[in-house]
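look at this stuff:

>
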Amino acid sequence: MMYPIKCFIFCSLALSLLLGCGFSTEKRRPAAIEKRMKERSIKVISEADILEEVRKKGDSITQEAQTALLEKLSTKIAEGSYKAAVSYCAKNAQELTDSLANKYQVHLKRVSLKNRNALNKPSKLEQGLLEAYQYTFEQGGSLNNNVQFYSNEDSILYNKPIFIGSELCLNCHGDKSNQALEVKEILKDYYPADSAHGYKVGDLRGMWSVAFSKKQLVKSM
């Protein structure tokens, strides 16, 4: 009849020894499991966080694209002539933007109300944004990048205005009467329906358009 009392005393001693050695009665998870649980925990990301990330990445991608394109064109002009630059632009500019689009997993293009390359024709949404940019520009307002959230869609659209930055641009985009004959000829060959001319330095040329996947963007944050 004394057995239960002995068992109770033994269990109490065992528990005291465990606690004395630094053990707890709570279940302990291995460190690896704890790490995985933290990684899988839900991260709260607000619309403001997404907006900031889109602007940051959009600025970076378009700056890289713009710099790469201008460097290539400047090199071609130095190596040969404006004809070589137009030829490069016609054959390789799209390839350059496509490579950056693949690199960052976005949809990247340059669009304008006065197209040279048919591939740069704006969508209906982009058309509206370009017209808003043009109106603001004509009214003397400042133009900045903007972000459009598509309703009920995964895409987020980033846009940044493109300006005629220097006299160099006018050799291909200025008044046709001032273009060199070789430039006129090659533009006619490559772009028979070209309307991207008649600009002055500082004019709005168009805009960069970068479409991000919202799911993919959030996943990377």
